[in-house]
Design brief:
336 residues; alpha/beta; Nucleotidyltransferase, domain 5; 2 domains; 6-stranded mixed β-sheet; 50% helix; binds zinc ion; RNA-DNA hybrid ribonuclease activity; RNaseH-like_sf; RNaseH_domain; RNase_H-like_dom_plant; nucleic acid binding
Length: 336
């Protein structure tokens, strides 16, 4: 890659470099870490003492002054991590350069896969350092790079999977696997004010398990409203003990953000984080995207009347107005 004019003026990364970093196929927390690392503002002991005149500047592994350079390159502990890896050469070019200068250089000479691997390893080193400092835990040095790379490849393969799922748009509702249930979710934002949600849960035969509606007077941005619909489904899953559940929404952007395929605004990211945590607590939950045409019963439920700030749940028989849609989804034609 040609060095762009201006990139080295003042030896800082230009917008093009930053764009490249933001576009790397990395978990958002690693990108944020990279940004802090490049700016040399990670709270290492040395950085903290230099900035606040407080705390302890000693490296938790060897007692020398803990600068970023020390933590990621020079500490005996770090050297043992890098030693067996072929990434070492790439990283040791960072000697006598600032992180920013080093990053400029590597970005101009290496493919994004190599930069992704390197940043993930740096993030992992930081993670291990914190785990040692705060929890007293220590992993074998030689295992750290393989673990980091495995974690990265898992993240990247999950992403490919979900893109694949999103691309497989079918025009009909697809039942879940026999050992799972599927909840379709939708949100409705009413022009007169307020938000409604609908959830319908079915099994692999299309058999009805539960339908629920909920309404509040509050109004949210569409994506947040959809996210709260997913939270409603997770809440029902907890109450009715649905531990292996596919949750389907027709909001593709939200699914991509939940799967960390896309960066989200802080407000959305907070709700996403809540959903991820809650999904972990409830059990084996998968969040999937489906086309609007496959989500009609949930759409109808979301628009169904229900008193403000309350919910209504059907468990043995579906509400009458859904019968037609359920038959259609099961390919049985209309009951009438
Ligand atoms: Zn050290």
């Amino acid at each position: 890659m040609e060095r762009k004019p201006g990139c080295w003026s003042g030896r800082v990364l230009c917008a093009g470099h930053w764009n490249q970093i933001w576009q790397l196929n990395l978990p958002p927390k690693v990108r944020v870490f990279a940004w802090r690392w490049i700016h040399n503002i990670l709270p290492t002991g040395g950085n903290l003492v230099d900035r606040t005149r407080r705390g302890c500047e000693e490296c938790p592994f060897c007692g020398l002054k803990e600068t970023q350079y020390h933590t990621f390159l020079n500490c005996g502990w770090t050297r043992r991590i890098w030693k067996p890896s072929e990434l070492r050469g790439l990283f040791s070019r960072g000697e006598e350069r600032t992180c920013e200068e080093w990053c400029c250089e590597v970005q101009e000479s290496e493919k994004s896969e190599a930069i992704e691997a390197l940043l993930v390893v740096l993030w992992y080193i930081w993670h291990e350092r914190n785990n040692h400092l705060w929890n007293g835990k220590k992993r074998e040095e030689r295992d750290i790079i393989p673990h980091a790379l495995e974690w990265l490849s898992e993240f990247q393969s999950k992403q490919r999977q979900s893109t694949y799922l999103a691309n497989q748009r079918s025009l009909r509702w697809n039942p879940p696997n026999p050992d799972r249930l599927k909840a379709n979710v939708d949100a409705a934002i009413f022009r007169s004010g307020g938000t409604g949600w609908g959830v319908i849960v079915r099994d692999h035969n299309g058999g009805f398990r539960l339908a629920a509606v909920k309404r509040t007077r509050r109004k949210w941005a569409p994506e947040i409203a959809e996210a709260m619909g997913i939270m409603f489904a997770l809440d029902l899953a907890k109450r009715y003990d649905f531990t292996a559940l596919d949750v389907e929404t027709d909001c593709l952007l939200l699914v991509q953000k939940l799967l960390r395929e896309m960066r989200s605004a802080l407000e959305v990211e907070e709700v996403c984080e809540e959903i991820r945590d809650e999904a972990d607590r409830v059990g084996d939950i998968r969040i999937l995207f489906t086309g609007r045409e496959c989500n009609e019963p949930a759409h109808m439920l979301a628009h169904t009347f229900c008193p403000w700030d309350s919910e209504e749940i059907w468990v043995s028989d579906p509400p009458y107005f859904l019968a037609h849609h359920l038959c259609k989804d099961n390919n049985l034609g209309s009951p009438i």
